[in-house]
Amino acid sequence: MNNLVKNETNIENLIYEVRGVQVMLDSDLAKLYECSNGTKSINLVVKRHINRFPERFMFQLTKDEYYNILRFQSETLELEQGKYSKYLPFAFTEQGVAMLATVIVMSTYTT
Prior knowledge:
By secondary structure, this protein is of the alpha+beta class. It has helices at 2-12, 26-32, 39-48, 63-74, 94-110; strands at residues 15-18, 21-25, 58-60, 90-93. The chain contains five helices and four strands, in the order H-E-E-H-H-E-H-E-H. A hairpin with a 2-residue loop joins strand 1 and strand 2 (21-25). Helix 2 packs across helix 3.
């Protein structure tokens, strides 16, 4: 039970507010879903099922939005050179996270 509470607290720290909605970043979701190729796996699954991810489910961050998230993270994390991707991340809303989980499970059983 204590592990469950601890994990929920960790997940709460991965939720950001962008464009007035709560989102999670593709890199954080790749870690949570234990994707072997990180965000590459997430992007591949999304690309294969793009019709399931309208903009209200997922969108790509702008440079300014990503910078603000990194600045927020730097208050609690020490930024390391080269740690962050050169590509702008995708942000998934609550509905997008649920759809991503569904699509990942479907992909696992069909491959």
